[in-house]
Amino acid sequence: MRFVIVTGMSGAGKSTALKMLEDIGYFCVDNLPILLMPKFAEMMMTPDAEINQVALGIDVRSGQLLNGIEEQLSRMDAQGIRYEILFLDARDNVLVKRYKETRRQHPLGGIGRVDIGIAKERERIAFLKMKATYILDTSKMLTRELKRELEKIFVEGKEFRNLYVSVMSFGFKYGIPQDADLVFDVRFLPNPYYIEGLKEKTGNEREVQEYVLNNDRARTFVEKLKDMMDFLLPSYILEGKNQLVIGIGCTGGKHRSVALANVLYHYIEKKENYGVRIEHRDIEKDAIVKAH
Question: What does the pLDDT average to over 28-35?
Answer without folding.
Answer: 85
